[in-house]
What does this fold into?
Amino acid sequence: MNKPRRLTGLALKLAAMAAATLPVLAVTQGTAVAQQERAVAARVLTCTTDTDGYWGHAHCTNTTGGEVSFRVHVVCGLWPDAYGDWKKLAPGATDISSARCFGGSGVGGVLVEEG
It folds into this structure.
């Protein structure tokens, strides 16, 4: 005859930890999405990005009437992300910001940060 299984103290603790962690993960993800949406709304430069696998580049043009700064943010796989130098663009100017992944699996994405 099969005996009913009982949860041990360790299993109950693990279940409680998992239940407590889920709301935190949901709030963190929601916050990141909100920050990304604000960043997209604030973009004023016209930019393109490219990569050769380990280098990421952001080519930006300022089409506004004032100075705007930007830099490249290279997402590196299995390695810390890399950031390019801040570049200040006068109205109508164009420039490039570049950064390199020095290890890991290379470039996973190339983003532009304006500031």
About this structure: Strands lie at 45-51, 55-62, 68-77, 82-83, 87-89, 94-100, 106-114. The chain has a mean pLDDT of 82. The two ends are 69 Å apart (CA to CA).
